[in-house]
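Section 3.1: Structural characterization of target chains.
Under the original work plan, the team committed to producing a structural model for every single-chain target entering the pipeline before any wet-lab resources were allocated. The record below documents one such target. The sequence was received from the expression subgroup and is listed exactly as submitted; it comprises 467 residues.
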Amino acid sequence: MSNTIKDDAKTAVEEVKDVAKDLASDVAAVPADLEGATKLRATETNTDDKAIRRTRTIATVILAILILIILAACAMMYALLGNRGLGLGDRQTAGITWIRSIYGHGTTADGLINPSSVIFSADGNSLWVTDSARHRLVQYDLNGRLVSIVNADWRVNEMIFPSRIAISPKGWYYVAEQTYNRVQIFDENFNHIETVHIEKPTAVAANDDLMLVGSRRGFAQFTYDGQPVGMHAADSEDEINHFDYVHALALDDNNNSFVLDSFGNRFVKYDDAGVPQYEVLLGHPGNQGIDGGRNVDQAELEADFPANLQLPQGLTLDGNGRLYIIDMFDFSVAIFNVDDGSFIRKVGAQGTGDGSFHNPNCIDYNPHMDMFASAEASLGRVQLFSIEGSSGDPLTQIRRNFSDFLDACCIPLIIILIITAAYLISRYLTKKRREKELTAALADPSDSASEGVVEATRDKSAEKQKT
């Protein structure tokens, strides 16, 4: 009996040893199986990474092609809006570099019928036109897009027939109504401030200190809000003050006044106290009946009047100490030195095409963008152009060209930025996700493969224990 118990115990011990050996071999096999599972996952990861890299390469090529197409579209739009166009024609005409024209379109809302004057806004980003025939003021941006319309309505804004307009640096509006013998003053929000009564106002100019109003027989000076300061009229004892239709005025930063006497064919500079500084004769007075100079010796004419103008209509100052006068019948712009009135040169040519002049009736300068604007009522258009040497700041031309580029390419550039940002963010998130998955697999390999190996080991141990 005791031998039997000993044999059973010995057999049990042997079985336990066998189970222990089996468990040890199974446990030893688990790391090898896990290593195989990890290698399998790495292989699968490499395969996935190759597919991702291939997809990424294709996406990169497509993105690059898309960006090139959009940039090409930008270049074409910039060429259309910029100073050189598509290279289909020369924009240089007798010293004038044409930028663009704003034409009338009959009775459409954004059309012009009779642009009698034009002036740039205080910030230089738009321009205002008096469309007298339609009793309104029209605002365009520098690319000719309609911004706003202010209709003359005496019940709302006191205006009836706007004929000339000036804008001060702080943004106040001064609107002359020649037919109604008055000038209306508005603040920067177009709230009516004052009505100045003056006979037949043919011109108006203003800065933040003063307002000048020209008429047939002279000009008057007011404070910026319309209070009288003084005047120069044709009945003055001083002959230099004998004017015959003042069609244009200008004020500089020192409150010097520049007065254009159209039919007298001259301009006069006054200091801030209203004292004449000099007079420049531009040609024979228009009321002398010389048939536009045809009966006058040309050499003698040029010696007496270097500019040789016929009917000057507009006057403006640039950013480089020069004065510009545009002539309705000479179809040109004459340039003078502000300090002494010396004649520099004359630019422009007659024609109805863009870059040429056909009866221009005013001129204004935009110091922010180094460009000029002229109005031609007979053609129902406003022209924007530049003249070499007009800016004392070399950055203004860069600003003008950059503004054109942004206007032409703003939307495409935004699209490119959005696509590029989305692409880079997608790549970054994909990279982070793959790194996270790989780190988790290496640090905690408890996936289905390893769990299967452990479960098989447990089943085998259970069988041996039953046996």
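The first helix runs from residue 2 to 81.
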